[in-house]
Design a protein that fits this description.
The chain is of the alpha/beta class. It has 4 domains: 184 residues, Rossmann fold, CATH 3.40.50.300; 252 residues, Rossmann fold; 178 residues, no CATH class; 124 residues, no CATH class. It contains 25 helices and 34 strands. Strand 31 and strand 32 form a beta hairpin. Helix 9 packs across helix 12. The protein is globular, with a radius of gyration of 32 Å. The relative contact order is 0.08. About 3% of the residues have low confidence. GO terms for molecular function: ATP binding; DNA binding; type III site-specific deoxyribonuclease activity. InterPro entries: Helicase/UvrB_N, Helicase_Restrict-Modif_Enz, P-loop_NTPase.
């Protein structure tokens, strides 16, 4: 069982498992789910190479063979040397195995089939587990779960891989999966890692549908135009209008189009006047300031016209609709308004859903569960390029802005519904159970007022995923890999390895001898490069420091001279064996390239100025009982994480005269997750390379000496129990002193102190010593 949050990559993991299972000898797969919409979406992901959501590479090469992925209508159609996937709903699978039909496969036919069953939204597969059945009832009960179980048991090699975001809470179900969970990544963890939008509830006192229609359209248009204003491309916020019944959904679509057609400037004026909502006030101010207001009606009528709409309840158009619904982010997809009932609660791949509108006025308990599911699906973050946030960086896929930042509007999902305090309370509870929070009104923020006005400088760097394949020279890591190989024995088509109670020592010359790779003739390496899809262009990019003009030159200059370890019994006199050896070498070369490619890179430290204006603190986190210190950078900063931080501030206050003597001016910043101050470990070959570090406190100072731009000291407060796991931060803090950061030939003096800890209520000696050595009796 893979318990993974909606949007966290379940289908991608599934695709990877399909390839791994094929390597293990499985060719036939049965994918099943509870709904047709999930089925169509997944078929697109797995079999339509033209789709933007296709999950496999253009060419799939496994065990030196090119593999195709085939969607089959019957297991008897299975192709050799292919991944064959039979797609079915659970209901269809139940019918297939329980109702005899001409030419249809039966349970008995499965005995000779080696199958992998892939169950998506697998929480539907527990009808039997949930019920306490006696022996006779169990033998008679032929439900979905029991039929799948029966099919699975037809062959001892069959596999069942289950995927779900929501495992049922019944103890019997929990017990069933206790030892079967391979991965757990809950929606709560997904949300806490900032991969979700902020969720807001917009409650309407006016029960007219038109008010919610207009509210959703204004919200969507505001987000789109705000993104355009900040040069954020391809930002098309979509709206979902949710009805209770199919007939109502179709009628509501007609009402929506009539509302758009008759919309007037007066309707907009009244809406903004009576909305009494900070979000809509901000939208109106934006429209006014950017001069959109005179043409707002025309904008709304054009952006949300009938050609931009989809109604999922039209069965005739379902297949076409699902293609459009699962590619809403594509530039050439004009759809942005969806009318639906329950079809999209599960299995819908959407990132740019920004508004969900509940069109039913009265609600019951079932409605809260369904709406919570839908909100959970729409809450997935829609990544967009902005400033330094580009694809390849993990931050690209996470929320980027404080709630006080106007651009946080682009990171919110709005749920529009009639005001009903009981319903909202229940919905909030359902969302909390899923691991999501619901913001019922804007958080109050307190602007932070700087107490000092000199320029504060800090060290900054970035962590990036390599954006382009082979964007640097990989000669050294590949050479290290190839030289350290212990090539297994290849002989007579079988790869042999001696199995003994005493483990074979790879470094023992008894088993291995070192030879140059020129033992394998050049033409076999050429063929191996072709089989592994490594062309000259790729090699030239990956091995920049070697001057070669073709593949032959690459082999002669780089591959052939390298020495590696071969089994002492290895023969080099058979064509098939030589090719297998060459393929093994090139396979390891390519694997190393890809592993190196996956490593993030950390940029060099740069000098940046810390902007002290436009900073704020959430009121809900405000602590008022902390003494005022005139040397704190922000006088309204009243948030601390622990009593240890209070002790640190007290230590600084007791020693402030030392700092007054040393510096012309100074202040201390309590770092409340200011994103720009995060630095990444750039210690090469460290296991903590590229890990982020947010120093708790930073001392900024202006020196007496003109040669220095300023003095910046990083200080970290740590409980004794946390010291061992944060040891790398100590090393990183010490390393900061050697960083050379200049501007206009003036250097920033950087310093990192040992951790501030308490032992038996006494400040640790390392910190005290370093503090006094750094600051006492030395004016700078």
């Amino acid at each position: 069982m893979f318990e993974m949050a909606t949007g966290s990559g379940k289908t991608l993991v599934m695709a990877g498992l399909i390839l791994e299972c094929y390597k293990q000898g499985y060719q036939n797969f049965i994918f099943f789910a509870n709904s047709t919409s999930i089925l169509e979406k997944t078929k697109l992901n797995f079999t339509d190479s033209a789709s933007s959501k296709y999950l496999f590479s253009e060419n799939i090469n496994i065990n030196d063979e090119n593999i195709e992925i085939k969607s089959i209508n019957n297991l008897n159609e299975s192709h050799n040397n292919a991944i064959n996937i039979y797609f079915s709903t659970i209901q269809g699978l139940f019918s297939l195995f329980t109702r005899a039909k001409e030419n249809a496969i039966t349970i008995e036919d499965l005995k000779d089939q080696k199958l992998v069953f892939l169950a998506d939204e697998a929480h539907h597969l527990n009808t039997e587990t949930k019920k306490k059945l006696n022996d006779s009832e169990a033998s008679e009960k032929r439900n979905w779960e029991s039929v799948v179980k029966l099919a699975l048991e037809q062959n001892k090699d069959n596999l069942l891989l289950e995927f779900s975001a929501t495992i049922p809470k019944e103890k019997s179900v929990k017990d069933k999966y206790e030892n079967l969970k391979v991965a757990t990544y809950t929606l709560k963890e997904f949300s806490e890692d900032k991969f979700c939008k902020n969720i807001y509830s917009l409650s309407y006192e006016n029960k007219e549908l038109e008010t919610r229609f207009l509210g959703a359209c204004v919200s969507s248009l505001y987000k789109e135009l705000l993104a355009q204003h900040h040069n954020i491309e391809n930002f098309k916020p979509c709206i979902l209008f949710k009805s209770e019944r199919i007939e109502e959904s179709k009628k509501n679509q007609e009402c929506f189009n009539a509302f758009l057609e008759n919309l007037s400037p007066l309707d907009l004026e009244n809406f903004f006047h009576y909305s009494r909502n900070a979000f809509f006030k901000a939208a109106k101010n934006f429209f006014d300031e950017k001069n959109y207001t005179p043409n707002l009606v025309a904008f709304l009528q054009t952006k949300f016209k009938k050609s931009t709409q989809i109604n999922t309840n039209n069965e005739k158009e379902l297949e076409k609709s699902m293609l459009l619904l699962n590619s809403l982010e594509d530039r050439d997809n004009p759809k942005r308004v969806i009318f639906s009932v329950d079809k999209l609660n599960e299995g819908w791949d959407v990132l740019n859903l920004f508004d969900i509108v509940r069109l039913k006025n009265k609600a019951n308990q079932k409605d809260t569960i369904k709406d919570a599911q839908l909100i959970g699906r729409g809450a997935r973050y829609y990544p967009f390029s902005y400033n330094d946030f580009k694809p390849g960086r993990i931050e690209f896929y996470q929320r980027k802005f404080d709630l006080s930042n106007p651009l946080s509007v682009l990171e919110r999902l709005d749920y529009h519904a009639i005001y009903d305090s009981e319903f909202i309370a229940k919905l909030k509870k359902e969302l909390q159970d899923l691991g999501l929070g619901l913001i019922e009104k804007e958080k109050t923020t307190i602007p932070l007022t700087p107490t000092k006005h000199f320029k504060c400088y800090y060290a900054s760097n970035t962590k990036d995923k390599n954006k382009n394949l082979f964007n640097k020279d990989y000669s050294d890591p590949v050479e290290a890999t190839l030289k350290s190989l212990h090539v297994p024995l290849f002989a007579f088509g079988v790869r042999e390895k001696k199995v003994d109670f005493k483990e074979e020592n790879k470094g023992d010359g008894t088993y291995y001898e070192t030879y140059a790779l020129n033992k394998i003739p050049l033409n076999y390496f050429l063929k191996a490069l072709n089989l592994k899809n490594l062309d000259f262009k790729t090699l030239k990019k990956a091995f920049k420091k070697h001057a070669f003009n073709n593949k032959v030159g690459f082999i002669e200059q780089y591959i052939s001279p390298l020495k590696t370890n071969f089994h002492k019994s290895q023969k080099f006199d058979d064509n098939k064996t030589l090719l297998k050896l060459a393929v093994y070498i090139i396979e390891n070369l390519k694997d190393t390239l890809l592993k190196e490619q996956d490593k993030p890179s950390v940029s060099a430290l740069e000098l940046k100025e810390f902007e002290t204006h436009n900073k704020s603190l959430s009121a809900s986190e405000w602590e008022k009982d902390i003494p005022f210190y005139e040397w704190l950078l922000f006088k309204d900063m009243r948030k601390l994480d622990s009593d240890l931080e209070r002790e640190f501030l007290d230590f600084i206050n007791k020693n402030k005269e030392i700092l007054d003597k040393k510096f012309k001016e100074w202040c201390v910043l309590r770092n409340d997750h200011f994103a720009e101050l995060k630095v990444f470990c750039n210690i090469e070959n460290s296991p903590f390379y590229a890990q982020g570090f947010e120093p708790d406190f930073i001392l900024f100072a202006q020196t007496h000496e003109d040669e220095f731009l300023g003095f910046t000291c990083y200080m970290e407060v740590k409980g004794e129990h946390l010291e061992p796991s944060n040891a790398w931060k100590k090393e990183f803090l010490e390393m900061l002193e050697n960083a050379t950061l200049k501007s206009h030939n003036k250097k920033l003096h950087l310093k990192g102190l040992p951790f501030f800890t308490l032992h038996n209520s006494v400040v640790n000696g390392d910190f005290q010593t370093a503090f006094h050595q750094t600051f006492k009796d030395k004016e700078c």
